[in-house]
Amino acid sequence: MNQTAIPFPAAASIGDSHGRCVNYLRISVTDRCNLRCMYCWNSEGMQFLQHADILTYEEILRLVDLAVDMGIRKIRLTGGEPFARKGLLHLLEQMLLRHPGLDLRLTTNATLLSGKVQALKDIGISWLNISLDTFNRQKFQHITGRDMLRNVTGAIDEALDLGMKIKLNAVALKGINDDELPVFINFARRNPVDVRFIEFMPMGHCNRWTQDNFWAAEDILAAARSHAVLTTLGPGERKSGPARLYGIEGGMGRLGFISPMSNHFCNSCNRLRITSDGKLRTCLFSDKEYGLRQILRHPGLSMQHVRRVLENAGKRKPLGYKLLQEMREHTIADKRMNAIGG
Ligand code: SF4
Predict the structure, then answer these.
(1) The predicted structure's pLDDT at residue 235
(2) Which residues line ligand 1 (CB under 6 A)?
(3) Which end of the chain has less Cβ packing within 10 Å, N or C?
(4) Would strands 279-281 and 289-291 be described as parallel, antiparallel, or unpaired?
(5) Annotation: CATH topology of 24-340
């Protein structure tokens, strides 16, 4: 199918009642994952969505066309694990053929990434967010339930060799990976990567979050300063998404901290999420969702109806930190990360 490039509109049209403008959309292409990470996977087992219930790639492309027309400039594809779904490379390619200027990114656990990096580069993907909480093989198996660390480190080497820009995201787990802080710092010292620690968020039931395994960004930063001389970056460099970044003296990479629990960034939040089953989620911490799949599949409804939902829901986008203050029993939201896409 020949894809003609669709021009970008002048202005963003999704704004909320807090004066925030939405220009970033995260789309989960599947809730399925080949890992069973302890902070994401429900200890009582979980059901994945039926194939008929998740958005088709054609439906995702229609949503992307509309989103771009409404001012979305950056799109991140997430999962579960996006490579757990067949045809992902083709979807990425179609997106950039239709929207050549789009800032299209991918978040992956990299266990299925090997051998695909060159294809990603050829499509026009320049940034990869890779989730990795440990460089220790036994601990990787303990955290994820799978012995697949070598798949990840091999894929990272491949991506670095091919010049892909990488952000390495580690969930900060006190008592589990805090002893590896020097290892992560050395990795950033030796490689042109952003290593970012993300505070553990209590998402979903049985999420194993406790005050004991919560490791606050300020504490990680303080500990990091005992392992490296961290340099303050120039204003333009200091931020990467919600992460606060620091240089490492004599190093190639940067160290970053994402602190949704202890130092929120909700006032500058510019994102919406669409789950793999076609629900619009205006805030990670809010379980209030808006069904888009039914509209997409309704013969009597059009993309104008979807546009109205995006506009109206966008207006009601909450300030997540306020929901955090109402957190009950160590759970902010009922839905799990694999079903939201992080
Ligand atoms: S908690 Fe909600 S409002 Fe705050 S940054 Fe995350 S998505 Fe945005």
Answers:
(1) 76
(2) 260, 264-266, 269, 271, 283-285, 319-321
(3) N
(4) antiparallel
(5) TIM Barrel (3.20.20)
